[in-house]
Amino acid sequence: MRKISILLVFVLCLLTAVGLIGCTGPTQVSEDGIVVENEGDAIYYKDAVSPTVLKIAFTEAGFGREWIVEMSKQFVRENHDVRVELEGDPTLANSLFTKLDSGKNLADIFVPLNSAWETYAYKGKLEPLDELFAQKPDGEDGLTVAESMDEVYREYCSLSTKDGTHYYAFPWNTTVTGIVYNKKMFRENGWEVPTTTAELKTLCDRILADTDGAVKPFAYPGKIGGYFDYIGTTWWMQAVGLESYQSFWDFENAEIYDPSQAPASGKQVALEEFEKFFKLETGYGVSGSMSKDHTTAQMDFIRGEAAMIVNANWMETEMKTSTPEDFEMGMMPVPFLENAYTENGEPVQYNYTTAPDYMIIPAEAAQKELAKEFLLFSVRADMLQLYTRLTGSPRPFQYTIEDDANLTEFTKDILKIREESVCYFDFSRADIYMKGYAKKYLNGGDPYSALVRGEVTPSRFCNLEYAEADKQWTTWVQSSQ
To answer: Looking at residue 405, what is its pLDDT?
Structure first.
């Protein structure tokens, strides 16, 4: 037995040596000497002596890691004395605040999905970024970071604390939402992309008729109600206009929940429109969709069981390995309500960009100044273009990208929707909201699942919200002080 054990150990060591087993991937060295270990866990210049280590922890989810690996390679290519160490974590948001609280296992840059960074800015755990926002990544003739940034992100990244008003967060990705559709299926069946909800309703009925019900209009992840909000909030903004919608987030009084007047009247209109397409009795959804998560629903769409799915700009990249080569994915903007808000006689196209994604530098990070250099580098025009080519997604800055072969048709749709839309995401600094009392949807969260199942009507949901807010408002205000 001992001889067999020794032989097994020898074989395992041999296999490890030739890279057939083990946790690490191959090491690659480019012609100009940039070393990439284990698909990007470490990136450095081969002749560097004692390089400064920059640690970046990022959410390795829908957009993968190629974008941050390539960006890091470019950074090292221009900074031979830097070694970038990347830690990809699909659930970074779950561990991030434990690390910030303890000050242990800190990266120099954290790149999480949306989470409440404001709490840690109040605690003094985040590095102010004012000087970074004032710099010009593309030279003195260009715009500052702040000037180039989407206005809603510029407002969101700023916070007043005991140390004054500062920028603490830095935009990572911006979301574009809409209705993803099977372009090839649409073309082969002669289906037109709808521009109004009336046209969308007609399309849904035609899809069922033309396919004898074999193809449903929609796949959707009923287990994840947030996807429904992509169209729900866009319709809300369409119903009352952006200025009115923004007033909801000021949380000035309980009247903001009163469905007889704006802004809450827009919420009720949006929920009524939602019912027309997603209530179970319409038959527009793939069977069993209410029990499915986002991946399962997306596979329903890719297999051709549905012609459309409410989704966002990450879908193509997220499902890349599961999508057949001949599949043609497109995205349409959310169709206009019948009485959509207009300016100069034309309906305004809004895009709900959902919860913001951002980057932060811990106040106790080992390499804060180098981290700021990397963030500045990341919004240089060529790096913004690189990001979009690799992820199919825009970042919330002013930049152009050539319409070339490196962009998929889906990415072109994404960029077109972003360019033609007024984009907005939800955020508020009102105490009553920050303390968790007033919310976008009261009475147990968003109403979409209950609406699908017919457990509540839009008017009842909105009236119950208003009654709850009216009853509790004084208590909420006092408890928020």
So the answer is: 61
